Amino acid sequence: MSNTNPASLPVEAVLPDLLRCLAEQGGAVLEAPPGAGKSTRVPLALLAAPWRGDGRILVLEPRRVAARAVATFMARQLGEPVGATVGYRTRLDSRIGATTRVEVVTEGVLTRLLLDDPSLDGYAAVLFDEFHERSLQADLGLALVQEVRGALREDLRLLVMSATLAVGPLAEGLGLPVVRSEGRVFPVTVDHAPPPRDGDPLDHCARQVAALAGEGTTLVFLPGVREIERVRERLAGGPPVSVLHGRLDGDAQAAVLDAGDGAPRVVLATNVAETSVTIGGVTTVVDSGLERRPEYDPRRHRTRLVTRRISQANADQRAGRAGRLGPGRCVRLWAREEVLARHIEPEIRQTALDGLVLDLARWGCRDPAGLFWLDPPPTGPWQAARARLRGAGALDGDGGLTDLGRRLNSLPLPPDLAALVVLGRDGGRPRSAAALALLLNERAPGLDREPDLSRRLARFLRRPGDWPGLARELRRLAGERRDRDEAAPLDTLLAAAFPEHLARARDDDPHRYLLADGSGARIDGDGPFADRDWLLVLDTDGRPQDARVRLAWPLGTEAVAAVLAERGVEEERVHWDPDRNRVVAERVRAVGAIVLERRPLENPPPALLERGLLDAVRGRGLTLLPWDDGAVQWRARVTWMHQLAPSEWPAMDDDGLLARLEDWLLPFLAGRRTLRDLERVPLVEALTLLLAPGQAGELDRALPPRCPVASGRAVTINYRAEGGPRLAVKLQECFGMEQLPALADGRLALTAELLTPAGRPAAITGDLARFWREGYPAVRKDLRGRYPKHPWPEDPTTAQATAKTKRALGDR
Asked: In this structure, which long-range contacts are made by residues 169-173, counting pairs with CB atoms below 8 Å and at least 24 apart in sequence?
């Protein structure tokens, strides 16, 4: 953290208002930009509040780096060591003492505190810092604290602090006042320097850093440790280079944060440097514009880290780091024209909710609608998580915790890893199972690049002291329990815990694997898994097809036999055969997508064939269906109505239609089996099933398929034209028309593409009257010589509309 005088921080000006709101109204929402000092000044200011008594102040930070840094800085302001008046607590580290009155914790720690003691006895206030990051644990913690304040602790103060979130809806939902502080950021010059099209982006980044590094600190934002190490290699021989990321221990992180004496240096950091921590002496920021975040695949119930573009709010926060000491500079390594999302999506919308369901079940809540949420848990993922937990035996039929559920929830791990620990305890492998769960949940420096989990485990258990944080957690999880020599092999235990990760080598390529969840993976031919027929694939690089295996456990014959015996299911299945363009029905024995044996199914029931067709359309897309122009235009018309009234008309995008195949396509699949059968599905009739009663007639009235023109002909409207609905009609057929018909009661404009007699575009207009006055004279002058046989009257508003030549008109 910086050594700024606290009295000069901008947040100091609003502390009287903030303290009054906490005293009189029980809480507040503090909006304070980066640099205001909210993270470190506000908690200390609350120590003298009369309502605190001897109660502790609980401060939540989204990351371990921030929790340690914020606590360390506040302790220094008091002239004390960490663990005295100010301490911190994370899942892997804790410095809390009997005299501690300000506890800085990571968000998951708050959830544990609440579940163990819902009254939060001994705490006077809870502060949520950097709430704009919108982590799942922060949303859950706020929901539980708000319920505690309403039911058990009216005296518990609540303060939510945010730098970039629009706080109005949050304050309104909580019923709390908003206090706004100014930030302290000097002007920052922002330049863009995207990498060359075919160049190495890390080489480009290193060149930019080398060119910019001068006085003070150059802070470089990169997505992950791998990129940090590669850029550091490229900067060898230049200014001193430090790194900052979540894997460093607390002392190493503190050294990077404190070293700000003005000497030239480069700090290569992940997004941990965006908020709550201040790196000394930063005058220049180089921003890759990338971050690594978890991404959840609901179809396969798998979360993986992916590299993606940051939001505009992230970019602004990163640039602001250059303006803390004086005017600064930020170079963004992407094109100026690139548009970023305004904010990151809340984690609650993009992750598995198993842990949330389990926590709320222990809280006694089976319906999240009864709690306060800025963004409520999505219904689909919530129901899917409940179903998984019921299937695993963690929830009963009513959604309450079972004995197994209580055992899982008592462990500070995600439910699937907690289940591994429980399996290990019950199966005689408590220490090894706990170590495996930790290695799968935490990144251990020095072990991360070892793709064989069995080797990672052996190295960790041989010298656990090399990873002190993990070693402490292992002692908490396993205690004095030791593995029994006669216990089942670990690969059998792992396969029982993660059967969906089972993978078998493909017959046509032993380096490619099919996983039980239906995805594909590949290994390096000379890697540790060469010649292994069966693996348990626990991490990949996330590619949608043939992802590279980053972590796996090779399975022995006994483990494979055990999982096949327990998980193998015999059932009737159908699939689409692309070579024969038809649905094929079989009786198979399989573990998920891995088929162990199959035989043809004679006389399959029609319902099975219909399901096979639906699966084919879902897998191969809507292009399997007969999209003639009539169906395409009908779909476009409904899409326009949905845009005009989204709550009344159904969406017609691919994802929406694929999600509702049973509602509109299934009724038309009876007796169909082949691609030729699908080509005879009456698509418009099928899609009409998605409309409410009376909407088909309303569609024809509001957005008719054809439009009459002055010549008497009904011309088809193209509802898929760029820019909106368009009428392509010969210019002479519109003589006498002053205006185009209104669509959707005037809510949608119709454009006319006026054609020459040869059918080529002559003009485009949405205002015929204006065109006749201003555009037609020039068009007439240009075309009358090229098309002399056709009428070109001086006054088109009174002329006869026609598609005929002058001679044909005369003959008539």
From this structure: 169/374, 170/29, 170/131, 170/374, 171/29, 173/372, 173/374
